[in-house]
What we know:
The protein is α+β, with helices and mostly antiparallel strands. It has 3 domains: 2-154, no CATH class; 155-243, SH3 type barrels (Roll), CATH 2.30.30; 250-331, Alpha-Beta Plaits, CATH 3.30.70. Helices cover 57% and strands 13% of the residues. The chain is built from 12 helices and 8 strands. It has helices spanning 2-10, 12-42, 49-76, 81-117, 129-151, 157-161, 163-173, 175-190, 231-235, 264-275, 313-331, 348-352, and strands at 198-200, 206-212, 216-220, 226-230, 240-241, 250-258, 288-294, 299-307. Helix 3 (49-76) packs antiparallel against helix 4 (81-117), helix 4 packs antiparallel against helix 5 (129-151) and helix 10 packs across helix 11 (313-331). The relative contact order is 0.06.
Amino acid sequence: MLEKIRALTENSWALGASILVVGLLGAKLVAWVVERWLLVLTRKTATDLDDRLVGALHRPLVVSTVLLACGAAATIVPIPDRAEAVVLAILKTAAIVVWASASFGLAGTLLDALSRRGSGKSILQPRTLPFFDMVGKAVIVSAALYFGFLAWDIDLTAWLASAGIVGIAVGFAAKDTLSNLFSGIFIVADAPYKLGDYIVLDDGLRGRVTSIGIRSTRILTRDDVEITIPNSVIASSKIVNEAGGPSVHHRVGVFVDAAYGADLDRVHEVLLSATHGVAQVLSSPAPQVRFLEFGASGLSHAVYVWIADGHERELVVHLLNSRIYKAFAEAGLEIPFSKHDIYIKEQPGRAAA
């Protein structure tokens, strides 16, 4: 038995194959430990953060075990030094790619959890999450490229020396992309809006912000159409944030005229009663009626209500307009409209006679 073991250790190819088999068994063991022990323990906790972290580490741990065994076998089997260096570089590159991909998920999970737990004065909040997400991805990609160069024994001195010239060339070639990139950073830092806000641009485009990326911002309109807008365009535009201010509620105004001679107290009572029973209208802040001005053909009024979701603005306007029209008709109140009186001095035929 000892002689067989000694012969196996003296045979480099057999030893390398044995190491590969042990590596595969080790990967199976790691996967079993993660699935049967770690995930079972994390499921018993009150939060799902540890579940997501362990789930993100599952694949890279298993793959790293196999790659480590392959690297150990490559150093034992009798292959040329150049081929061995290439194989090890490939294995290192694969490990870098696997861990970089896992780092994206880990960083996103941690940032999301920390932003939800952050207070109002914390630097990491849901509105600043896209900025830290962009910074985290940039750091991960930079680190992956750096270690990738080291894995292939590439000297970075020449690359760093020519970085200035390359940077100038890239700056001219990708000025629009860089403009969008810096605009995205300024948008996240200045925070004129955050995810979920309803914004209105200069051209009247209105929608909910669904994504704030490095290059562009995406908004979802009421027609369920997602529009991608370059950050440089948004940075140079006037933005109306309907969800801005100290409250997240949205104010909706409906305007109507009452005919001259109408009882103002009755008009105000009817307008307020029209807001009752609309499910989307909040009771606090309470609906308000305002007498705006003496119009050209009537007394101009506005009914202001508050809603929790700006997505329902058009629906609330429709419901209020319908209820106000019916309430005015039932109360005998007139909604004035433009009228023109035509006076005929004489008929053309009579003038000719």
